[in-house]
Amino acid sequence: MSVIDVHAHVFPRISESESRLLAGAGEPWLRVHRNGTGTMMSGADAYRPVTGPLWDPEQRVAAMDTLGVDVQAVSSTPLMFGYAAEPARAAEWCELVNQRILDYCAQAPDRLLPLCQVPLQDLQSACETVSKAAAAGHRGVHIGNHVGDRSLADGDIVAFLAHCADEGVPVLVHPWDMPGGERLRPHMLQWLVGMPAETQLSILGMALAGTFERLPDSLKLCFCHGGGSFAYLLGRADNAWHHRDIVRADSPKPPSAYVRRFHVDSAVFDPRALRLLVDVMGADRVMLGTDFPFPLGEQEPGSVIRGCPGLSEAERALMLAGNAAAFFSLRTEGPQV
């Protein structure tokens, strides 16, 4: 049974001097140490320790072989988005990152699918960048779930998503820049609580703003981390839509009416949670996602899908590879891309 992972990150080798393209807007770069480990840097600040597969394609493919993964869709680490930069600088930065991702994936073109990033803070530049990247060989685009205070229901971001639909470019949405504050600082609570909340906020915000009504059905859209809290609190949202006019003011349908308009990955880490997610979304809307190679990811890719109760073998095959093959328009006879 083929295995395709739609949620796997890369931080290609980018130097400190190259990161200055962003001129104070984060300036992410990679420090590689002599012992083979690395550190993601944000300017002069150490952001996170990392391991070789994040920047070394040979190590990544070896890990994929060990883990039983045939294909990964490879997207930038969200620290690299550059959304706070001036648009012209951000566009130049994205071109650099996108070329490095192409070069990285070219080391194993039958195993690694490159996903580009765009300067989402500027509509024209974002559309030009995604079109250029798709023509160069990128198989989709990876975006954050907001740009500052602008959500995915923002007019310019909706126009960008419509452009992706017109161009046939699949969109992977990743939460980032989570809420701060003292209560979320300990124990990685920004990641454990903030990330799921960010993704629920994005999906529910699109539904209640009527955004899906304005987007073509052809848009291929996937939210990471199982859609966050969305599936588990959908009943609450539907109840509010039915009983409060302020909730349904901009949406002609309850949020549950839109679950067929997007996909989610399977990164929920508990077969019971995955069972509910499949019941809400349908087995054909869930794709394997691991968050490779980070420690908070699924350490045994596909184990939750294989251990989920009540799934048929056909449903497991869809979630492990079939849905992703359709999402990215891959050939289905084996792992070749």
UniProtKB/TrEMBL annotation:
Pathway: Secondary metabolite metabolism; quinolate metabolism. The lineage of its organism: Bacteria, Bacillati, Actinomycetota, Actinomycetes, Kitasatosporales. Its EC number is 4.1.1.45. Monomer. Keywords: Decarboxylase, Lyase, Metal-binding, Zinc. Residues 4-329 form the Amidohydrolase-related domain. This is 2-amino-3-carboxymuconate-6-semialdehyde decarboxylase. Belongs to the metallo-dependent hydrolases superfamily. ACMSD family. PANTHER family: 2-AMINO-3-CARBOXYLMUCONATE-6-SEMIALDEHYDE DECARBOXYLASE (PTHR21240), 2-AMINO-3-CARBOXYMUCONATE-6-SEMIALDEHYDE DECARBOXYLASE (PTHR21240:SF27). InterPro entries: ACMSD, Amidohydro-rel, Metal_Hydrolase.
